[in-house]
Write a structure and sequence with these properties.
With 196 residues, this protein is mainly α. The protein folds into two domains: 7-35 and 125-189, no CATH class; 49-116. 52% of the residues lie in helices and 0% in strands. The chain starts with 6 loop residues before the first helix and ends in a 7-residue tail after the last helix.
Length: 196
């Protein structure tokens, strides 16, 4: 039986997803509905760069395209780990194996796995963790929150994706993490939040 999401997480996600700035933040991030001279964030290419990390031919291995894709969300794979990811035993065996590699850590491990399984795992970094108050089991809590109340948040995210004029190939999880990240990034980067 699936675990129930903490009510506070479900409520917090709901309020951020339905906020007045959610659509405009998504449009700004992905560059939709903006003047031609507007430049989207580099992370807008994360899921789809080189056809995506989950396309059948490469879904079960790490490619050079994946290493470039994680750079679009400001993560750098250390030079000593990159060859082992591409040619060695690491591949995509598990988040714990990646996280424990020198210089990789939990953010890089999570973002690499989000690239490989964009409909299973969201991009989860320090900004998103901070805006949500550092949940103890984010992936499980998010999964439960998206299923709660007859999938209400999931449906809100699909509607938000449509309102921002994003293609359906942008995963609901990506819509969620971008909304959260855009909402909190400035406060987080300026150190004016309690999570830094």
């Amino acid at each position: 039986m699936p675990t129930a999401a903490p009510r506070s997480l479900t409520h917090q996600l709901g309020s951020l997803i339905t906020s007045d700035q959610a659509v405009s933040n998504l449009q700004r991030y992905f560059g939709t509905g903006l003047p031609r001279e507007a430049v989207p964030f580099t992370g807008s290419r994360f899921e789809h760069l080189a056809g995506g990390g989950d396309r059948p031919a490469v879904a079960n291995s790490v490619t050079a395209d994946d290493l470039i894709a994680v750079q679009t969300v400001s993560v750098r794979i250390p030079a000593q780990a990159a060859p082992d990811l591409l040619e060695g035993d690491l591949g995509v065996r598990a988040w714990h194996l990646l996280r424990d590699q020198p210089g990789i850590g939990w953010v890089t491990a999570g973002e690499l796995l989000a690239r490989k399984r964009p409909r299973l795992l969201p991009v989860y970094d320090r900004v998103v963790r901070c805006v949500l108050g550092r949940p103890k089991s984010f992936w499980l809590d998010l999964h439960a929150a998206l299923r709660a109340d007859n999938w209400a948040l999931h449906h809100e995210l699909m509607a938000l994706r449509q309102a921002a004029d994003l293609p359906e190939t942008v995963s609901v999880l990506r819509v969620c993490d971008v909304v959260l990240w855009m909402h909190h990034r400035t406060d987080h980067q300026q150190g004016s939040c309690i999570g830094t």
